């Protein structure tokens, strides 16, 4: 399956492979809406198990955004990854898999990655006025928002 998608999209799919029975794709972000729809409609990946990101601060495209999809019909998973620069946005996939609503909000909250067209793009775990995105590798573990803790909790940070 990954080979046929690679043939269909050419250089838009930077890498396609299978390891231990799981398919992997690294795709250009411009292909996402169309490719995700094809995976759902033609390849029967009817469930988005997870959507997350990984931060690589020393790369030009600092973020890998990863969709882990599952096909109930085939009992098969596929991992779709795209790489984006800090400040870039991706199209929402909420119209394809409604379960990505909260997953996209979590990626926004923890990494600062926006999803264009999302119905309610706001923080989901942290308060709206929280500064920074804690799962970025350049967000120090001791860097919790000391100002927010002091103002809202009336205490000094425990760090």
Key descriptive features of the protein:
159 residues; two-stranded parallel sheet; 24% helix; elongated; five-stranded mixed β-sheet; Beta Polymerase, domain 2; alpha/beta; 29% strand
Describe the secondary structure blueprint for this structure.
Blueprint: H1 2-9, E1 13-19, E2 22-27, H2 32-41, E3 47-55, E4 63-71, E5 76-84, E6 89-91, H3 100-111, E7 114-116, H4 146-153
Description:
The chain is of the alpha/beta class and 159 residues long. The protein has one domain: Beta Polymerase, domain 2 (2-Layer Sandwich), CATH 3.30.460. The protein contains 4 helices and 7 strands, in the order αββαββββαβα. It has helices at residues 2-9, 32-41, 100-111, 146-153; strands at 13-19, 22-27, 47-55, 63-71, 76-84, 89-91, 114-116. The chain has a 5-stranded mixed β-sheet with strand order 1-2-5-4-3. Strands 6-7 form a two-stranded parallel sheet. Strand 6 (89-91), helix 3 and strand 7 form a beta-alpha-beta unit. The longest helix has 12 residues, at 100-111.
**What is the terminal-to-terminal distance?**
50 Å
User: How large is the count of helical segments?
Assistant: 4
- Looking at the structure, what is the overall shape? elongated
The CATH class, by name, is Alpha Beta
pLDDT averaged over residues: 92
What low-confidence regions span 5 or more consecutive residues with pLDDT below 50? none
Oligomer: single chain
Compute the number of structural domains: 1
Order of helices and strands: HEEHEEEEHEH
The H-level CATH homologous superfamily, spelled out, is NADH:ubiquinone oxidoreductase Nqo5 subunit
């Amino acid at each position: 399956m990954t080979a046929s998608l690679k043939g269909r999209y050419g250089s838009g799919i930077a890498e396609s492979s299978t390891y231990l029975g799981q398919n992997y794709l690294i795709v250009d972000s411009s292909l996402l809406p169309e490719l995700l729809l094809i995976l759902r409609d033609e390849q029967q990946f009817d469930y988005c198990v997870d959507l997350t990101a990984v931060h690589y601060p020393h790369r030009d495209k600092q973020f890998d955004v990863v969709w882990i999809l599952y096909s109930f019909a085939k009992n098969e998973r596929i991992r779709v990854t795209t790489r984006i620069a800090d400040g870039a946005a991706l199209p929402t996939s909420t119209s394809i898999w409604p379960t990505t609503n909260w997953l996209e909000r979590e990626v926004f909250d923890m990494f600062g990655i926006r999803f264009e067209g999302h119905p309610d793009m706001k923080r989901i775990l942290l308060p709206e006025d929280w500064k920074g995105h804690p799962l970025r590798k350049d967000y120090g573990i001791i860097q919790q928002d000391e100002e927010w803790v002091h103002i809202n909790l009336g205490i000094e940070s425990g760090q």
